[in-house]
Amino acid sequence: MLCCNPGPAMESAEVESDILRRVRTLLRELDGHHPACQRDRGMLRWTLHKKIDQNPSNSPILVRILVKELERAERGDYRHYIIPLLHTLMYALIKAPCISDELCSRVYDFCKKLLTLPKPFCTIGLDYAARLKMERTTPGMLYQRMVISEQSLRSDPYPYQEKIFIFADPELLSEAICKALLTDTEAARVSQSPRACMCYVITHTVQAALGEGCDLSALRTRLQGMPSSEVEHWFQEVVMAVECTGSQVAADRGQHVERLQSIYSAILSSSPPGDAPLEGLQGTPLPNPNISFHLWTEDDQLWKELVLFIRPLSQSCEPDRLSQDLDNFEIQDIISDCECCEQTRFSVLSTDSGIERDLPPSAEEPFAPCSADTEQSRLHRKGGIKKKPSPLESVAFLQTGCNGPGTKPAAKVQRRVGIPTEPTAPLLRLHTARIVLLGDDRILGRLAQAYHSLRKRETRRVFLTPRLNLQFYYVPVTGQPGTPAAANPSATSPEELCEVAAYLGRADPWYESNINTLCHMIPKLATMVFFSSSAQEPAEDVFLTELCAQVQDSISSREVNPTKKKTTLDGPGIDLTVTYRKVVVSDRAKEVSLSLRSTGLSMKAIPANTAEDLACLNVNITEVVRINNLSGRSFSTVANKLKTCNIKIRSTEQRPFTLCLDKDSRRTYRSVVSLEVSPCLEPSYCLQKSRTMKFSLQEAEDVGLVKYMPKSLLLPINTFAGVIQ
């Protein structure tokens, strides 16, 4: 049998053909031609992005295909294709490692063409054209701003913050799905540290500017070895460079690249030069946004969460006190307003002309010394109501606490006649709250009631409106068995309870294919292994000789991930992302990342001969490779061997695998989606290390007594030749 491996040109053509097929399928769904499997509806766009995430170097191929489809839709007057394709393109462009200026220019020119069309095409085209103009001059700016705002990273040049609030109807969601959503959002929040997000911004922005001239592996390794304060310093330098270039009227891309090149060189200046060749463009993860999950049980719950979002953390008090202050804020507001109304009013006949020169001489000296009686009469207050001060007692306190980079303190009262007061600068809306509602038309009714109440508060005392961008999103959910709504059925059918969603679907085909089709999927999320397992607490264990991992075959790929279509391009096994530290000849550790398809792997700690290092793992990954032959396409497996001390493996499809430690069936872990293996540390070393770090600024180096303590936990076994560690 004659076999041959596909060349780079053939591989690229296959990838482009596969991406084009996925895009065309997405467009056919907009025309009402649904896929054969109804469970795939609404997930086509996300599977497309997931495909690109597995190989970020294919991002320019996707952008190029989407531009061609946009131009074809504009020529053929398929306007309902334009907005979905444009949203998909912009998301791919933001996540792409590096996009050429020629490709950005084509997208920019198309967005300018949309300005001649009616709304909403001209509005969206203008917004995206402005963003693309900045991205062409300062590559990586859109990604940087998205991460800074969604993660609320401290940055004076770009002080914007965003947060997603999910409000769910407890009558429609079962206890299992509520726990799953709460656990998943909390796990996503805990797993993303500000330090990691800052590193993402640095690496993506530098690579977007320098392209293939950026050694991303060396940059990541250098950032990982830095103290957090130094990482924050370089993060601020990168943000300042990007925002300064973006704010210039006639910004020069060449000067921007020079600035990023100097920062890149400065970061790597303390690292020894490496001889390894550059690995090309690599993707940078886009962190999950800041999400909080709430069951809507109180009428004023929305207003309270928005106030807590605006209020700086530095002025937060105890939770119980803060909750009480929020509850009493409205009452205190009314009392405060009534104080002025309850005062005794005196009618005084005015005899002055209103002209400053006609005032008596005493009026020209308002700051002259006065007697004690006069001063006491001036300070006398009548009919006031004394109340206990509170952090949320007045909006003045809240406004003072929210004076950020875009605000000015309120003008002081000028006592001198004829001196005008200093005008206050308008407040900038530095906060964006995206409210996502899970439920049917009834939760929208509660939203209308809450929004009306919020507007009434703002009419009396403006606080949220000038500081907050408020955006509402609606994801319809139908009642399921086991929920309170199912226990008390009404005469109204589920279709009648989702009239708003049906209307939105008729007005927007993209909403129909991406949102309405998911209303039956959300209640099933709690039963999917990949949803619950990825949010579980990580388990920690120790193995001595061997770790084996196999694809879990008790659950089919369709049950675990209904969005995954198994095609001939995939083959057996699951897609894995492997990150490990490779030891080169110069004894310097180099971090290597690779993506492959595998049916299983094993890690052995016992070397084949005594000359090898016991601390090094021998990893054997069974990799699935595709071959082309005369009879068609087939698959085979090869052994991918590597040596390392630290390794991380993750299933990119969220399909689980099974782990077995030391060949002991009693030590088996099922439904595993990721694992991390590193040398076992001596507990006494860890304890002393934590104590030392409290009093030392050195984070990477061992100082004091720690330097002389054993770092690894060794298992001493007695033999006739002595003790072997």
From TrEMBL:
Matching InterPro entries = PIK3R5/6
Care to name a GO molecular-function term for this sequence?
A: 1-phosphatidylinositol-3-kinase regulator activity
Record-linked Pfam families: PI3K_1B_p101
Cellular component GO terms, alphabetical: phosphatidylinositol 3-kinase complex, class IB
The family database entries (PANTHER family) matched by this protein are listed as: PHOSPHATIDYLINOSITOL 3-KINASE REGULATORY SUBUNIT, PHOSPHOINOSITIDE 3-KINASE REGULATORY SUBUNIT 6
Under what name is this protein listed? Phosphoinositide-3-kinase regulatory subunit 6
Provenance organism: Gallus gallus
- Upper classification of the organism: Eukaryota, Metazoa, Chordata, Craniata, Vertebrata
